[in-house]
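Dear H.,

Thanks for agreeing to be a second pair of eyes. The structure we're designing against is below in token form, covering all 136 positions.
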């Protein structure tokens, strides 16, 4: 299931396509931080998001086919940012949700999900601003 924007549309607010290479993860991390800052996330929330995006990117990149792209999609809602990272894979990937990497993701992000088909692997992270959580 793909994340949706505030009015239910499935089109991302921002989409970024970079080579599936760890050298480009900083671009996704910086984009995440910039968008979170626009949503008035705290500095701690922004740093948690940057670390989670870096960790999720590392997980998907280990499975990516060489020469393909890493696609980041960003969905913004007031006080909430959802980031999905997708790579092309040769077959369905079963991620170990007991792994240290997955534990880090679920600790840093408000929500983390993984989805794999026979051609794509996607990790989706949702981060809710601590300002937003404290008002609910």
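And this is the sequence the design step returned. I haven't edited it by hand at all.
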């Amino acid at each position: 299931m793909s994340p949706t924007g505030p009015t239910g549309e499935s089109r991302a607010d921002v989409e970024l396509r970079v080579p599936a290479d760890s050298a480009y993860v900083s671009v996704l991390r910086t984009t995440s931080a910039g968008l979170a800052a626009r949503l008035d996330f705290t500095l701690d929330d922004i740093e948690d998001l940057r670390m989670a995006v870096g960790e999720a990117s590392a997980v998907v990149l280990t499975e990516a086919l060489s020469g393909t792209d890493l696609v980041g999609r960003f969905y913004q809602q007031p006080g909430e940012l959802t980031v999905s990272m997708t790579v092309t894979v040769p077959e369905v990937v079963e991620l170990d949700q007991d792994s240290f990497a997955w534990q880090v993701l679920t600790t840093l992000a408000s929500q983390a999900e993984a989805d794999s088909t026979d051609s794509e692997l996607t990790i989706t992270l949702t981060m809710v601003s601590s300002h937003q959580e404290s008002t609910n």
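Two observations from my side: The chain has one domain: 14-135. The domain at 14-135 is CATH 3.30.565.10 (Heat Shock Protein 90).

Warmly,
E.
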